[in-house]
Design a protein that fits this description.
mainly alpha, disordered N terminus, about 120 residues
Amino acid sequence: MKKTILLLSAVAMMCACSHKELPEGVIDGERMAAFLADAYTLESYNSVESKSDNDTLSITIRAAYDDMLRRHKLTRDEVEYSMQYYANHPDQYRPILEEVGNILNKEAEKHFYNA
C-alpha cells in the first residue's frame, strides 16, 4: 500500500512539473503558436516584397502587424515579454514551435490543394 501511494505521489509530481504554470503576462502555448504562425507568414510575405525597398510597403507591413496583434488580442509588450520567457525556457518553447510548424503545414496544404 505504501509503495502504491509513493508511486502515485511520484507520478503526480512528475505531471505537475512537466506542465509548469506560466508566470503572469506570458502568453500560453496555444495562443503563442497561433500568433507566431501568423507572424511567420507576415514575415515571409515581407521578405519577398521587401526587395522593392519601398517605404509604403514598410508602412503596410507595420499596419498588418498591428492588425494581427489586434486579432489575437495581444500587445507588443505581451509578445516581447513572452518571447523573452520562452527564450529562457526552451523545453516549453519547443512544443510551441512544433505547433507553429503544424499550423503552417496545414495552411500550405489548404493552398496547395485549393490551387
